[in-house]
Amino acid sequence: MIRVFLVDDHEVVRRGVAALLESEDDIEVVGEAGTAESAIARIPALRPDVAVLDVRLPDGSGIDVCREVRSTTPGLACLMLTSFADDDALFTAVMAGASGYVLKQIHGSDLIGAVRTVASGQSLLDPQTTASMLARLRDQATRKDPVEALSEQERHILELIGEGLTNRQIGERMFLAEKTVKNYVSNLLSKLNMQRRTQVAALAARMKTDRDR
């Protein structure tokens, strides 16, 4: 018997999928949730074989649920169910450990087959999708850290932005004209491929957290 847990914020969708799956002799729906928080709390206790997860939830993402519950429920297969064909979401789902990714427009019989496929330990990713995933992984592996391209002065400014300092305050701290700091910040944004100062501040905060670990 394949034990399935359903996660979707639309009750009508959950009921429809549950009725479809329960009509099969070898599938049992052991639980449901409409939010990420509820799913993360309930799945480890029920220990299903498959979790069918909506990608978009009101308090988070089914992908985050997949990542979280797979760390607490060994052997769980996650099947992502979504209304949107999104390459970024597909890639993130695979990296989170999802075994399959199907659209809600899927035929009922195909969804049942998908549940059986991932429950047996197989992946639902077709060869073309797998090739795309591998190419993207290789690209990420070979891409250099953009922070490495920053000069020592720019790195210092990056840290000061992370502390919440304005251009004027950074100039006073580093004995530079405010206009000079502004030019440094523009170059820094360009090298990091960012558009907003808040993105730089977030990066600086993350780097500081990594150093403090």
TrEMBL record:
<dbReference type="InterPro" id="IPR000792">
    <property type="entry name" value="Tscrpt_reg_LuxR_C"/>
</dbReference>
<feature type="domain" description="Response regulatory">
    <location>
        <begin position="3"/>
        <end position="119"/>
    </location>
</feature>
<dbReference type="Pfam" id="PF00196">
    <property type="entry name" value="GerE"/>
</dbReference>
<feature type="modified residue" description="4-aspartylphosphate">
    <location>
        <position position="54"/>
    </location>
</feature>
<feature type="domain" description="HTH luxR-type">
    <location>
        <begin position="143"/>
        <end position="208"/>
    </location>
</feature>
<dbReference type="Pfam" id="PF00072">
    <property type="entry name" value="Response_reg"/>
</dbReference>
<keyword id="KW-0597">Phosphoprotein</keyword>
<dbReference type="InterPro" id="IPR011006">
    <property type="entry name" value="CheY-like_superfamily"/>
</dbReference>
<dbReference type="InterPro" id="IPR058245">
    <property type="entry name" value="NreC/VraR/RcsB-like_REC"/>
</dbReference>
<dbReference type="InterPro" id="IPR016032">
    <property type="entry name" value="Sig_transdc_resp-reg_C-effctor"/>
</dbReference>
<keyword id="KW-0804">Transcription</keyword>
<keyword id="KW-0805">Transcription regulation</keyword>
<protein>
    <submittedName>
        <fullName>Response regulator</fullName>
    </submittedName>
</protein>
<keyword id="KW-0238">DNA-binding</keyword>
<dbReference type="InterPro" id="IPR039420">
    <property type="entry name" value="WalR-like"/>
</dbReference>
<dbReference type="InterPro" id="IPR001789">
    <property type="entry name" value="Sig_transdc_resp-reg_receiver"/>
</dbReference>
